[in-house]
Amino acid sequence: MAWTLSTSVDEFHTRAGGSLAASPARNTVLLTVTDRLRERGPHYYGGDAPVFGWWCPEPGGPVGGAFLRTPPFALRLGEMPVSAAGELAAELAAARTGAGAAIGAAVGAGSADVVEVAGSDAAVAAFSAAWQAATGATGSVRTRERLYRLGEPTEPPRPPAGGARLADPSDRQLVIEWLGRFVVEARLVASGVATLADDRIAARQLHLWEDGGRPVALAGHSAVIAGMSRIGPVYTPGDHRGRGYGSGVTAAASAHALGLGATEVLLYTDLANPTSNSIYQQIGYRPVEDCTVLEFRGRAARRARVA
User: Which pLDDT does position 96 carry in this prediction?
Assistant: First the structure.
Protein backbone atom coordinates (compact mmCIF):
# COMPACT_ATOMS: atom_id res chain seq x y z
CA MET A 1 0.00 0.00 0.00
CA ALA A 2 1.47 3.39 -0.98
CA TRP A 3 -0.32 5.29 1.81
CA THR A 4 0.30 4.58 5.49
CA LEU A 5 -2.01 6.15 8.08
CA SER A 6 -1.49 6.66 11.78
CA THR A 7 -2.93 8.49 14.78
CA SER A 8 0.55 9.00 16.29
CA VAL A 9 2.14 12.40 15.75
CA ASP A 10 5.52 11.03 16.83
CA GLU A 11 5.36 8.25 14.26
CA PHE A 12 4.34 10.79 11.61
CA HIS A 13 7.22 13.07 12.55
CA THR A 14 9.72 10.21 12.49
CA ARG A 15 8.57 8.88 9.14
CA ALA A 16 7.59 12.01 7.24
CA GLY A 17 9.35 14.86 9.06
CA GLY A 18 12.40 14.83 6.82
CA SER A 19 10.29 14.97 3.67
CA LEU A 20 8.25 17.89 5.03
CA ALA A 21 11.39 19.79 6.01
CA ALA A 22 12.88 19.30 2.54
CA SER A 23 10.09 21.47 1.07
CA PRO A 24 9.12 23.79 3.95
CA ALA A 25 7.13 26.33 1.92
CA ARG A 26 4.67 23.90 0.37
CA ASN A 27 4.47 21.91 3.62
CA THR A 28 4.25 24.93 5.90
CA VAL A 29 0.91 24.06 7.49
CA LEU A 30 1.87 20.43 8.14
CA LEU A 31 5.14 21.52 9.75
CA THR A 32 3.56 24.05 12.11
CA VAL A 33 0.61 21.83 13.07
CA THR A 34 2.88 18.84 13.73
CA ASP A 35 5.17 20.98 15.87
CA ARG A 36 2.26 22.27 17.95
CA LEU A 37 0.78 18.78 18.44
CA ARG A 38 4.13 17.37 19.58
CA GLU A 39 4.47 20.23 22.03
CA ARG A 40 0.90 20.45 23.36
CA GLY A 41 -0.58 17.00 22.83
CA PRO A 42 -2.85 15.35 20.25
CA HIS A 43 -6.05 17.12 21.32
CA TYR A 44 -4.73 20.67 21.08
CA TYR A 45 -7.00 21.48 18.12
CA GLY A 46 -10.07 19.55 19.27
CA GLY A 47 -11.42 16.53 21.10
CA ASP A 48 -11.18 14.08 18.19
CA ALA A 49 -7.87 12.36 17.55
CA PRO A 50 -5.85 13.69 14.59
CA VAL A 51 -5.01 11.46 11.64
CA PHE A 52 -1.72 11.52 9.74
CA GLY A 53 -0.59 9.86 6.55
CA TRP A 54 2.47 9.53 4.34
CA TRP A 55 2.87 8.21 0.82
CA CYS A 56 5.81 6.26 -0.58
CA PRO A 57 6.09 5.53 -4.29
CA GLU A 58 7.78 2.22 -3.39
CA PRO A 59 7.33 0.08 -0.25
CA GLY A 60 9.91 1.10 2.31
CA GLY A 61 11.17 3.90 0.08
CA PRO A 62 11.42 7.63 0.75
CA VAL A 63 8.29 9.58 1.59
CA GLY A 64 6.92 11.49 -1.39
CA GLY A 65 3.82 13.10 0.11
CA ALA A 66 1.93 13.58 3.37
CA PHE A 67 -1.32 14.85 4.85
CA LEU A 68 -2.87 15.43 8.25
CA ARG A 69 -6.32 16.07 9.64
CA THR A 70 -7.04 17.68 12.99
CA PRO A 71 -10.83 17.72 13.44
CA PRO A 72 -12.76 19.99 13.18
CA PHE A 73 -10.36 21.43 10.60
CA ALA A 74 -10.03 20.38 6.95
CA LEU A 75 -7.92 17.47 5.80
CA ARG A 76 -4.68 19.22 4.76
CA LEU A 77 -2.65 17.92 1.84
CA GLY A 78 1.08 18.61 1.79
CA GLU A 79 3.26 18.56 -1.28
CA MET A 80 2.58 15.38 -3.25
CA PRO A 81 2.09 14.09 -6.80
CA VAL A 82 -1.46 14.44 -8.04
CA SER A 83 -1.62 10.67 -8.45
CA ALA A 84 -0.96 10.27 -4.72
CA ALA A 85 -3.80 12.67 -3.88
CA GLY A 86 -6.18 10.62 -6.00
CA GLU A 87 -5.01 7.37 -4.39
CA LEU A 88 -5.56 8.84 -0.92
CA ALA A 89 -9.15 9.80 -1.72
CA ALA A 90 -9.89 6.37 -3.14
CA GLU A 91 -8.40 4.58 -0.13
CA LEU A 92 -10.25 6.78 2.38
CA ALA A 93 -13.50 6.24 0.47
CA ALA A 94 -12.95 2.47 0.63
CA ALA A 95 -12.24 2.67 4.36
CA ARG A 96 -15.60 4.40 4.93
CA THR A 97 -17.42 1.32 3.72
CA GLY A 98 -15.13 -1.18 5.38
CA ALA A 99 -13.50 -2.19 2.10
CA GLY A 100 -10.21 -0.53 3.07
CA ALA A 101 -9.48 -2.88 5.95
CA ALA A 102 -5.88 -1.76 6.56
CA ILE A 103 -6.70 1.94 6.72
CA GLY A 104 -9.90 1.35 8.64
CA ALA A 105 -8.01 -0.64 11.26
CA ALA A 106 -5.30 2.00 11.52
CA VAL A 107 -7.48 5.05 12.11
CA GLY A 108 -11.09 3.92 12.37
CA ALA A 109 -13.58 4.02 9.52
CA GLY A 110 -15.24 7.16 10.91
CA SER A 111 -11.99 9.10 10.50
CA ALA A 112 -12.05 8.34 6.78
CA ASP A 113 -15.05 10.59 6.15
CA VAL A 114 -13.97 13.88 4.60
CA VAL A 115 -15.95 17.10 4.93
CA GLU A 116 -13.29 19.52 3.67
CA VAL A 117 -9.92 19.21 1.98
CA ALA A 118 -7.27 21.91 1.56
CA GLY A 119 -4.00 22.12 -0.32
CA SER A 120 -2.52 23.10 -3.66
CA ASP A 121 -4.99 23.52 -6.51
CA ALA A 122 -3.67 20.48 -8.36
CA ALA A 123 -3.66 18.13 -5.36
CA VAL A 124 -7.13 19.21 -4.21
CA ALA A 125 -8.53 18.79 -7.73
CA ALA A 126 -7.15 15.24 -7.96
CA PHE A 127 -8.41 14.33 -4.48
CA SER A 128 -11.83 15.83 -5.20
CA ALA A 129 -12.29 14.00 -8.49
CA ALA A 130 -11.47 10.62 -6.90
CA TRP A 131 -13.55 11.29 -3.76
CA GLN A 132 -16.62 12.37 -5.71
CA ALA A 133 -16.34 9.40 -8.05
CA ALA A 134 -16.15 6.99 -5.11
CA THR A 135 -18.73 8.54 -2.77
CA GLY A 136 -21.20 10.46 -4.92
CA ALA A 137 -20.57 13.61 -2.85
CA THR A 138 -20.37 16.97 -4.60
CA GLY A 139 -17.59 19.47 -3.98
CA SER A 140 -17.70 23.25 -3.90
CA VAL A 141 -14.96 25.80 -3.36
CA ARG A 142 -15.09 27.51 0.02
CA THR A 143 -11.90 29.58 -0.24
CA ARG A 144 -9.20 30.27 -2.80
CA GLU A 145 -5.83 31.19 -1.30
CA ARG A 146 -2.39 32.20 -2.51
CA LEU A 147 0.82 31.27 -0.72
CA TYR A 148 3.50 33.96 -0.77
CA ARG A 149 7.19 33.89 0.12
CA LEU A 150 9.13 36.97 1.23
CA GLY A 151 11.78 37.95 -1.29
CA GLU A 152 13.65 41.20 -0.70
CA PRO A 153 12.00 42.91 2.28
CA THR A 154 10.69 46.34 1.31
CA GLU A 155 9.34 49.13 3.47
CA PRO A 156 5.67 49.94 2.88
CA PRO A 157 5.34 52.52 0.09
CA ARG A 158 3.38 54.74 2.49
CA PRO A 159 4.85 54.03 5.94
CA PRO A 160 2.08 54.30 8.54
CA ALA A 161 2.32 56.42 11.66
CA GLY A 162 3.40 54.64 14.82
CA GLY A 163 5.39 51.48 15.40
CA ALA A 164 5.27 47.81 16.35
CA ARG A 165 5.78 46.02 19.64
CA LEU A 166 5.30 42.48 20.89
CA ALA A 167 1.99 41.75 22.60
CA ASP A 168 2.22 40.99 26.33
CA PRO A 169 -0.19 39.54 28.91
CA SER A 170 -1.80 42.96 29.48
CA ASP A 171 -3.06 42.77 25.88
CA ARG A 172 -4.86 39.46 26.41
CA GLN A 173 -8.47 40.66 26.19
CA LEU A 174 -7.78 42.80 23.14
CA VAL A 175 -6.00 39.93 21.39
CA ILE A 176 -8.84 37.52 22.15
CA GLU A 177 -11.37 40.01 20.79
CA TRP A 178 -9.41 40.67 17.62
CA LEU A 179 -8.67 36.99 16.97
CA GLY A 180 -12.37 36.25 17.38
CA ARG A 181 -13.26 38.93 14.83
CA PHE A 182 -10.59 37.63 12.47
CA VAL A 183 -11.99 34.09 12.64
CA VAL A 184 -15.48 35.37 11.79
CA GLU A 185 -14.39 37.66 8.95
CA ALA A 186 -12.11 35.01 7.42
CA ARG A 187 -14.86 32.36 7.75
CA LEU A 188 -12.54 30.03 9.63
CA VAL A 189 -13.33 27.28 12.12
CA ALA A 190 -13.32 28.77 15.63
CA SER A 191 -11.47 26.53 18.08
CA GLY A 192 -9.91 27.74 21.33
CA VAL A 193 -9.37 31.43 20.53
CA ALA A 194 -8.49 32.24 24.16
CA THR A 195 -5.99 29.38 24.32
CA LEU A 196 -4.48 30.47 21.03
CA ALA A 197 -4.11 34.04 22.31
CA ASP A 198 -2.45 32.87 25.53
CA ASP A 199 -0.06 30.55 23.71
CA ARG A 200 0.98 33.08 21.08
CA ILE A 201 1.48 35.85 23.66
CA ALA A 202 3.56 33.55 25.88
CA ALA A 203 5.67 32.49 22.88
CA ARG A 204 6.16 36.16 21.90
CA GLN A 205 4.68 35.50 18.47
CA LEU A 206 2.13 38.34 18.25
CA HIS A 207 2.90 41.89 17.18
CA LEU A 208 0.76 44.96 17.74
CA TRP A 209 1.06 48.15 15.72
CA GLU A 210 0.45 51.21 17.85
CA ASP A 211 -0.40 54.72 16.73
CA GLY A 212 -0.61 57.40 19.37
CA GLY A 213 -0.14 54.82 22.10
CA ARG A 214 -3.11 52.62 21.17
CA PRO A 215 -3.07 49.29 19.28
CA VAL A 216 -4.50 49.53 15.76
CA ALA A 217 -3.43 46.26 14.06
CA LEU A 218 -2.12 42.78 14.83
CA ALA A 219 0.08 40.21 13.10
CA GLY A 220 1.54 36.91 14.24
CA HIS A 221 4.47 34.77 13.20
CA SER A 222 4.99 31.05 13.74
CA ALA A 223 7.98 29.37 15.31
CA VAL A 224 10.90 28.84 12.94
CA ILE A 225 10.79 25.22 11.74
CA ALA A 226 13.08 23.87 9.03
CA GLY A 227 14.09 27.48 8.35
CA MET A 228 10.46 28.49 7.77
CA SER A 229 8.16 30.89 9.62
CA ARG A 230 4.63 31.78 8.52
CA ILE A 231 2.98 35.15 9.12
CA GLY A 232 -0.59 35.07 10.38
CA PRO A 233 -3.08 36.00 11.44
CA VAL A 234 -3.02 39.61 10.22
CA TYR A 235 -5.93 41.73 11.41
CA THR A 236 -6.83 45.42 11.38
CA PRO A 237 -10.16 46.50 12.92
CA GLY A 238 -12.54 48.09 10.44
CA ASP A 239 -12.25 51.61 11.82
CA HIS A 240 -8.45 51.54 11.44
CA ARG A 241 -8.25 50.22 7.88
CA GLY A 242 -6.93 52.14 4.91
CA ARG A 243 -4.07 53.76 6.82
CA GLY A 244 -1.30 51.25 6.14
CA TYR A 245 -1.31 49.67 9.59
CA GLY A 246 -1.68 46.15 8.18
CA SER A 247 1.35 46.63 5.94
CA GLY A 248 3.35 48.07 8.81
CA VAL A 249 2.63 45.29 11.30
CA THR A 250 3.15 42.57 8.65
CA ALA A 251 6.52 44.05 7.70
CA ALA A 252 7.48 44.21 11.38
CA ALA A 253 6.46 40.58 12.03
CA SER A 254 8.35 39.49 8.90
CA ALA A 255 11.52 41.29 10.00
CA HIS A 256 11.21 39.70 13.44
CA ALA A 257 10.95 36.21 11.90
CA LEU A 258 14.05 36.89 9.81
CA GLY A 259 15.84 38.01 12.97
CA LEU A 260 14.97 34.67 14.59
CA GLY A 261 16.80 32.86 11.78
CA ALA A 262 14.02 32.14 9.29
CA THR A 263 15.28 31.76 5.74
CA GLU A 264 11.77 31.47 4.31
CA VAL A 265 9.00 33.76 5.57
CA LEU A 266 5.58 32.85 4.19
CA LEU A 267 1.97 33.96 4.35
CA TYR A 268 -1.40 33.03 2.87
CA THR A 269 -3.91 35.46 1.44
CA ASP A 270 -7.52 35.11 0.42
CA LEU A 271 -7.65 35.57 -3.35
CA ALA A 272 -11.04 37.21 -2.94
CA ASN A 273 -9.30 40.12 -1.18
CA PRO A 274 -7.36 42.13 -3.80
CA THR A 275 -6.21 44.66 -1.20
CA SER A 276 -4.22 42.19 0.89
CA ASN A 277 -2.74 40.53 -2.20
CA SER A 278 -1.53 43.94 -3.37
CA ILE A 279 -0.08 45.25 -0.13
CA TYR A 280 1.91 42.11 0.64
CA GLN A 281 3.57 42.25 -2.76
CA GLN A 282 4.44 45.88 -2.09
CA ILE A 283 6.52 44.86 0.94
CA GLY A 284 8.40 42.10 -0.86
CA TYR A 285 6.20 38.99 -0.94
CA ARG A 286 6.13 36.89 -4.12
CA PRO A 287 3.64 34.15 -5.15
CA VAL A 288 4.57 30.50 -4.58
CA GLU A 289 1.37 28.58 -5.40
CA ASP A 290 -2.41 28.84 -5.36
CA CYS A 291 -4.42 26.71 -2.97
CA THR A 292 -8.04 25.68 -2.53
CA VAL A 293 -10.24 24.82 0.43
CA LEU A 294 -13.02 22.57 -0.89
CA GLU A 295 -16.06 21.35 1.00
CA PHE A 296 -18.12 18.28 0.15
CA ARG A 297 -21.86 17.85 0.31
CA GLY A 298 -23.85 14.65 0.09
CA ARG A 299 -24.47 11.61 2.24
CA ALA A 300 -20.84 11.10 3.22
CA ALA A 301 -20.32 14.73 4.12
CA ARG A 302 -23.55 14.89 6.13
CA ARG A 303 -22.55 11.80 8.10
CA ALA A 304 -19.14 13.29 8.92
CA ARG A 305 -20.68 16.57 10.07
CA VAL A 306 -23.04 14.75 12.42
CA ALA A 307 -20.15 12.71 13.82
Answer: 82
